[in-house]
Design brief:
With 140 residues, the protein is of the alpha+beta class. Helix content is 39%, strand content 16%. Bound molecules: adenosine-3',5'-cyclic-monophosphate.
Length: 140
Amino acid sequence: MERTLAILKPDCVRKNLIGPVISQITEAGFKILALRMVHLAPHTAGGFYAVHRERPFYKDLVAFMSSGPCVPIVLEKENAVADFRALIGATDPKEAEEGTIRQLHADNKGENIVHGSDSDENAAIEIGYFFQGLDLVSTH
Ligand code: CMP
């Protein structure tokens, strides 16, 4: 079993899509191990995306991610990291495959509804950013 970190971003919350998106995730076979709703301060959003701090979109990304509440979720499944990235689709919803979460719901690549970890190593770091071991509930 593998874990990944999803974040339902502020646009997902504003559009009232928490329920439908979580349904799509669980119908795809992911188990929810932990979940919370949090309004990130700019420095906290910036810390999460620190690897992107030299990129031209960093300032807008931090402003967007701290613009309202978001919902970090720890997901578990075999091959969770790759399978979740397939489920959410490409960063730019215009390039995302039919039926993916971003293709269905996202407006553009800055406001793209959901985040998913891009490797096992980053999944562990990102899960630790939002959750403690005690928060992770065994579903077995
Ligand atoms: P995410 O998977 O959360 O990881 C980094 C985020 O930066 C990405 O999704 C996008 O929402 C955001 N972003 C904004 N502009 C760009 C861009 N031009 N290229 C890549 N990512 C971008």
